[in-house]
Structures are given as C-alpha cells and as structure tokens.
Write a structure and sequence with these properties.
The structure is a single chain. The chain is an alpha/beta fold. It has 2 domains: 132 residues, Response regulator (Rossmann fold); 72 residues, Winged helix-like DNA-binding domain superfamily/Winged helix DNA-binding domain (Arc Repressor Mutant, subunit A, Orthogonal Bundle), CATH 1.10.10.10. Helix 1 crosses helix 8 and helix 10 crosses helix 12.
C-alpha cells in the first residue's frame, strides 16, 4: 500500500490528538474513568450471546474496567445508557430492530447521556465507518482485533480520545479528498448546507476559528498555546466554546466537521 503522505499523517494526528490533559478540562467530571477512584464503566451491546460473553471475560478481568450491563438491541442500549450511565458503550452495528448506528445517533443526541460509543463490527465497510462517525461514535474497531486492542480501545475512548486505526484514517482522508464526496454522501442540498456552515462559523470568534483550524491539523492544546502565544488554560476555554457553538460532542466530531465542511483541507498544514 502506498504511503498516504503528510496529509494522512496530519488527519490521523488530528483525530487522535485529544490528550488526557486536554479532555479533562473540556469535559469536567468527578473522577477520570480508569483511575483508582473510578473504574471505567462499560456497557456491552451485541445480539450474539457468545460475543458478549467473550467481551465480558476480556474486559471484566482487566483492573480498572467494570462491565455494568449488556444489551441485545439498539433500543435496549439507549435505555441502559440512561439507567446505568456507562463511560463506554461497546456497540455492535447489525442487530434486530434498532441497529447500532441508530442507537449511537440517539445516545449522542441525548444530553442526559455522557457515554462515549466504541463501534465494534465484523464488517470492514466504509458505509459503516462513515455512518458511525456521523452518528457520533468516538471509536471504530473490528471484532477480529486482539483482546489487548479491545482493552486499549476502551481506555482510549473512556478518557475522551479518538480511536481510529491508521488504515481507517486513510479511508477517511480519501473520502474527504475525492471530488464530489467531501460531504460523505449528503449533497442533496449543497447550497443550504453551505449557508448553515457559514452561519455556524459566524458564531465563532476569530480566535476560536484559529483554534478549530489547529485542532483539525492535529495540534494538542499545548501546541496551540505555543503557536498562538496564549496560556494552555485559555486554549482549553476556546476548545470548549468551539464544541458548544458547533454543537459537536467532542474533539473527534469537531475535526470531522472541520474537514467535512471545508474549514481545512487534507494536506493544508503550515
């Protein structure tokens, strides 16, 4: 496979640049999941009993991770997300009734739910990947990954980082870079979408727009602070404002939004 070049590296860095120190200030809570004070609470969602049992054994035996529930459908997942307040939801895609993508959309849109969704699927398909990202998923992992990869994925997503493998990142970049496909398949109302994008960007101050551009280029809060000659606490405030004004859930969604709406383009890194 050919080297995707610096643009792919930039996007990969952007999607994975949410460091633990960055996220803590953007999404404050009691104790950070996975610390001695708070185990990572995990909800397993899959219609296959053996799959859930395997995940429960892998995750339940890991220190600092607690499996707090299991669901067999997307509808059950939404209800248990409300009832059990998991930190991470390991979500299957294909299930009877409401599928995992629709459940992810509902969970991400519900302000009462703070859980992050890690999509787990057997099918390495672009339509699942992009639908999962648009639905608000914080990570995407294939079920044939190693147990160690699953454990690390749960920890990464729990602390607020993005989880996309290099090959998945390359496909995201290719989709953004392909003429006519930058909107991920939603080009029916291009002029209306452009107007909406402009209106959202108008809500950002000049400094917040700069911060968004740096986020999308892969910079951490500390790197942005150095570049803009401001304090890191100031950058954290700007990041929080960007997420709120763009109505996006976290840094990964902000990065995807920036590329999808042309705020930055693949390869445009100063």
């Amino acid at each position: 496979m050919s080297d995707p070049g610096p643009s792919a590296a930039a996007l990969n860095a952007a999607l994975n640049a949410a460091r633990p120190t960055d996220v803590a200030a953007e999404a404050p809570g009691a104790a950070e999941p996975g610390t001695a004070d708070a185990a990572i609470r995990v909800l397993l969602v899959d219609d296959q009993h053996l799959v859930r049992a395997g995940f429960r054994i892998i995750l339940g035996s890991e220190p600092g991770i607690e499996v707090v529930g299991e669901a067999t459908t997307g509808r059950e997942a939404v209800q248990l997300a409300l009832d059990r307040a998991p930190d991470v939801i390991c979500m299957d895609v294909q299930m009877p009734g409401m599928d995992g993508l629709e459940a992810t959309r509902l969970i991400s849109a519900d302000t009462r739910i703070t859980s992050r969704v890690l999509v787990l699927t057997t099918f390495d398909r672009d339509d699942y990947l992009f639908a999962a990202l648009r639905a608000g998923a914080s990570g995407f992992l294939l079920k044939n990954s190693s147990p160690e990869s699953l454990i690390e994925a749960v920890r990464v997503v729990a602390r607020g980082d993005a989880l996309l493998s290099p090959e998945v990142t390359r496909r995201v970049l290719e989709r953004f870079s392909t003429p006519g496909e930058q909107d991920l398949g939603a080009d029916a109302a291009a002029s209306s979408a452009a107007a909406e994008t402009a209106a959202l960007l108008e809500r950002l101050s000049g400094r917040e727009r700069e911060v968004l551009e740096h986020l999308a280029q892969g910079a951490s809060n500390a790197e942005i602070a150095t570049t803009l000659f401001v304090g890191e606490a100031t950058v954290k405030t700007h990041v929080s404002n960007v997420l709120m004004k763009l109505a996006v859930r976290d840094r990964i969604e902000a990065v995807v939004w920036a590329y999808e709406h042309g705020v930055v383009l693949p390869g445009n890194r100063d």
